[in-house]
Amino acid sequence: MPRLLLVEDDARLAPIIVEYLAGSYDVTHRADGARALETALAEEFDVMVVDRRLPGLDGVSLVQGIRRARIGTPIIMLTALGTVADRVDGLDAGANDYLVKPFEFAELLARLRALRRTYTSNEASLSVGTWDFFPEDRIIESPYIGPVALTPKEAELLRLLAENPQRTFSRAQILSAVFTPTDLPGTVDTYVHYLRRKTEESVVLTVRGKGYRLGSL
């Protein structure tokens, strides 16, 4: 069975989740973030399910710690906080998906199956200067500061540029490829700013009057 790390401190909910998942996964349960981080760093898992609110070390900090250790195991974050800002915090930390409580167990299983179908731990990286970019893990790794977690849209934007390093994309082309038709052209500028802030200013080159292309790091 694939190994699953469940990090959930709710004494009533955790045993129910363990029992439900036990038919499909070899489940290891931890009830606090600090001990869960120790386990995640010491053992190998195929997927992780992490509650956002945890004693000792909260879920966002736990996921950040896992990603800083260059562990790309797919992670679903469980949260009772359903606001966009809370979900974005989890994704920014490096989670691959989120599920808002209360949830149906069938949906949790379906999301776990989807993550495991799309996840490939041996994916070749894309080079961005001296940095290594792992699109599926949404991580770009610096030889100086280590791995940096990207949001889904940041990773999509960087992947578009990194796979076409000699091409300049207009804002309209990036909107069509990465974002939605209802997004404004300024959305592209915002996400370029996010990428530069997380890495270096030179990650994306502005081509005056034309748009953006991959820069160098």
TrEMBL record:
Signal peptide stretch: none
Q: Annotated DNA-binding ranges? A: 123-216
Q: Which Pfam families match?
A: Response_reg, Trans_reg_C
What are the Response regulatory domain coordinates in residue numbering? Answer: 3-116
Instruction: Report TM segments.
Output: none
Q: Does the keyword Phosphoprotein apply?
A: yes
Please give the PROSITE patterns that the UniProt record associates with this protein.
OMPR_PHOB, RESPONSE_REGULATORY
Is Metal-binding given among the entry's keywords? no
In this chain the OmpR/PhoB-type domain maps to 123-216
Instruction: Say where the protein is mainly found.
Output: cytoplasm
Cellular location(s): Cytoplasm
Known Gene3D superfamilies for this protein? Answer: 3.40.50.2300, 6.10.250.690, Winged helix-like DNA-binding domain superfamily/Winged helix DNA-binding domain
The alphabetized UniProt keywords are: DNA-binding, Phosphoprotein, Transcription, Transcription regulation, Two-component regulatory system
User: What residues bear 4-aspartylphosphate in this entry?
Assistant: 51
Q: Which PANTHER family match?
A: REGULATOR OF RPOS
Q: Mind telling me what this protein is named? A: Response regulator transcription factor
Q: What is the organism of origin for this protein?
A: Gryllotalpicola daejeonensis
